[in-house]
Amino acid sequence: MKLDDRLNGTVVKNSETYTVIDNVHLKNLVVSKTVLHPKKETGGHRHADQEEVYQFVHGHGRIQIDDVYLDVNAKDVVLIENNAFHKVYNDSSVDDLVFICVFNGKRSH
Q1: Torsion of CA 68, 30, 104, 56, to 10 degrees
Q2: Can you give the pTM of this predicted structure?
Q3: What phi and psi values does residue 78 have, to the nearest 5 degrees?
Q4: If exposure means fewest CB atoms within 10 Å of the residue's CB, which of 17, 44, 59, 89 is most exposed?
């Protein structure tokens, strides 16, 4: 199965801040697409026993990992270690910031 920016799945969150779609085809990994709307930010959080990989596919913004802020653009990949606080910011006033997140197990947030 080819995975692209049209990730098929189930909408698990939909608000004025973002839309989150989880792929339902895998048993041990969650592949999730987040569309973060202009001038919005995700809720910051951490996972005690869960690593994540974020692949940014459209737009630009920033990601906070603990006390470090990184600029992100389409094609950037960010690795998030266990228990690291992380939050994504869309700095654009026009474009959505879209990223794919892959993590093991079940959704915990």
Answers
A1: -30
A2: 0.87
A3: -125, 130
A4: 44
